[in-house]
Amino acid sequence: MNIFRHTMKKIPVILLILVLVLCLLGFRATFASSAAQLELVEQKDLKGKEQIILKKAGETVISTQLPIQILLATDRLALYSQGYDSLKKDRGDVTGYGSLKVSKNLSFHFNDYWTILTDGFQIEREVRVIGTERAGFASRIMFTPSDVYTKNRTCLFVPGMIYGDAQFLPTSAIGGTDNFKGSKTNIFIREDRMSAPLFGIYFTGSHHSLALLNPSPNGQTTEKESHNLLPTVLTDARFQFGSIGVQIEHGSLRIGYCYPGNEGEITYKGDIYPGGHLKQWRRRFHPVIDGFTHTYCIRIIVDSPDSFSSFYTEMWREAWKVLNPNINRQNISLIKRSILTALASQVELNGRYSGLPNWVDAYKGGVNFTDRKAVLGFTGKNLESARFLLRGADEKWNRDSVDMRKKALNIIASFLNIKMNPPAATGFNLDNGAPVIALPHKKQIYLRSLGDGFKALAYAYLDEQRRGKVHKKWLNWMKKFAGWLLNQQNEKGGFPRSWQPSTGLVAEKSTLSSYQAVPFLILLTQITGQSKYLDAAIKAAEVSWTSSQKYGQFIGGTIDNPNVLDKEAATLSLEAYLLLYEHTGNKKWLVRSKTAANFAETWIYIWNVPMPIDESNHLLQWKKGNSTVGLQLISTGHSLVDMYMAFNADEFAKLYRYTGDNHYLQVARILLHNTKAMTAISGREFDLRGAGWQQEHWSLAPPRGFGLHRGWLPWVATSQLNGIYGIEDLGDDLKKKLLWQ
After folding, report:
1. What is the domain partition of the chain in residue ranges?
2. How far, in Å, CA of 442 to CA of 559, rounded?
3. Which fold has domain 332-739?
4. What's the CA gap between 393 and 405, in Å, rounded?
5. What is the pTM of this model?
6. Which tens digits make up the pLDDT trace of 239-261?
7. What pLDDT digit, counting tens, does each position of 629-647 carry?
8. Which of 19, 132, 584, 631 would suit a FRET pair with 345, their CA atoms being 20 to 30 Å apart?
9. How far is residue 365's CA from residue 687's CA, in Å, rounded to a whole number?
């Protein structure tokens, strides 16, 4: 009996060991079978030169007929290509050798080491110049997928630039419809223009996909190259960036990598859309000097995802895993205090009117100039500023809490004078109180501006209510606007993108931005308990989702860009869907939140783009030594970057809490910490006005390290504060994981 009992006690342990052993064997078998499915096959071309084919389960996935390619620039541009002279195979890996002879005295020696991976393969390439000539060169490798290219069934993915097809891109942008005019298309893009050096292709018919990734980007450039905005041919040994892209000709598609980076047939001059698009090649080469060697590594990833959004999400996460972006830890409490102090310092009071100017020169040596508009939402964020000044007034460290609270209340009181049924304006002139709109030249009032402002006021109302303070005038103003807004909703649930001031006549009928009304309507439901606002919010969210978002495309977030793909469309949708999930408990909104988040995070730089090696740090606006990990591209059609998604640090943290997916926690850390890399604090003021100041935007593509101006706008402060306060509100356990304080 004792033996039986002793044996029974051991059974759970024995079973656990057996399960673990079986799981381990199963994992090893799965890993082995996955690896065994992929093989590199060598064969000879018609000229007897060696070429390589990747096969999966015996079927060809991708091939390279002429892996050795040289672009040679003399007084003309010439392309030379051939197969390998010989191949050496070792346990599935292959080394390809080749000598490409250009002339009697000039050749290029290639040494390519191919390695099979579980999800594709990697190539480490070395090219050595034999001979000297007054010329420049770039090496290239191109691959042909086995799937047949068709325009309607082939989706392209470049993070922050191209998501599917040209439909929602500016026509003259990289990847826009102008790329596809004629029988031949080239879309080659510099790595520094990409949030990750990644280019993917998804075939909707077969669900096959492949992506080309640079797993170890360098990105170095020079001052001359960075400021060469009207592209001329440049040759320099210090160029360390490549370009990734596709060629489409006569129904055939090829994907490839060029080093150093040749970009075209469309490039950007550096201006914001539409002035910066050039249908030209930006040619960059290394010098043709005897013994000069360049090396690079690329990876091809193959997969079979069930949808385009699944494809780009999986490819992005693979890039994240490979590039492993570092957290640039910041003193968040000090930064919050600095930002609040700087924000409060810009509040102006002029008679009955109080507010923050829409633009202030952030450079301490700059001109004393401000944009005199005080705007409630995008981009002036006056009501959002007031919300956070109210929160800042409650901070224990704040010796000016009474003054800060007074400033916040004055701002809100000033905006209550604006008629909102229909909206007459989105702000006022700080000097004379005259009504203004965010973009006077557009002569439109945008749903985005209204949504930003009223959402912020609703949050402030709830914050104050929790303090035991009720603001009936705020609520009456919000309800008047909401009454008008509900009358603008069409039968399907959509809201127009914009209206004419005062008349309320629709200016832009597109309902792709309907998600922008959702947070305010949900918050008003919480305040009033009236279901009509929630019903309207759900209808608006549904029409937003079914229009394009269910296909992984988010459109129309910003008002100063065309109605195109941009990151703010996804971040605003993420906020809306999370609020709906929290308010209704319906898990479909959590699923949609994840889709919005997965799109939004692909705009975040997850590799460090170095500033030009010989550029003066004094002149640079993004200073050397500060990692660019965490910056985000803004919109398709240009390559400017900002820190806007600091706003969403708490929302990614919530996704981690709701899903248990640790990746979202990593994103939240990047958005909380790395987005403060160029926020001035005491002892680290850069060349800005002082602690708490930050420039609005920069560029990591030419002109690298510079923006179009050195201005600060209120949204720069409020985006940072929204993420910080949002994380503080999540509770101590999650806050500790994010703050490390």
Report:
1. 51-323, 332-739
2. 10
3. Glycosyltransferase (1.50.10)
4. 6
5. 0.94
6. 999 999 999 998 899 999 999 99
7. 999 999 999 999 999 999 9
8. 631
9. 8
